[in-house]
Specification:
By secondary structure, the protein is mainly alpha-helical. The protein is about 75% helix and about 0% strand. Helix 1 packs antiparallel against helix 2 and helix 2 runs antiparallel to helix 3. It is elongated, with a radius of gyration of 16 Å.
Amino acid sequence: MVFFPWKEEYEIGIREVDEQHRELFSLINELYETMKEGKGRETVHRVLEGFIERVQLHFQAEEKWMEKYGYPGLLTHRAQHENLTKKVMEMEKNFMDAPPGFSIKLANFLREWLHNHILGSDRRFGEYLDEDRNRADKHRSR
């Protein structure tokens, strides 16, 4: 059973963003499987570092889309990205000395945050693009 399965409800309708979201799901699943298989802290840490790198690139791309289309919620959305980045980097910094079970809490945190963020803030951006078909049609993944 997959820890964090992709569902159609997560699509916001921007091909590039949806593909990046799928990649983040895959990385969270890889992180979880690595932890579940007991591959060792160094290996889990490397996977976590890769996730952080990809999520930062994703946030930059998403914010560029928002800037391009004058999304009024950009500053709030950017603050959410900054807060997650700060929290995950702090968790990553403390990961090697964390107590047993910390990595599962981390995976659950990432899953819940991404789930809520996509279905909330990211969905609102997709709906904003839908309000102006000329703006949205060339970027729809559906």
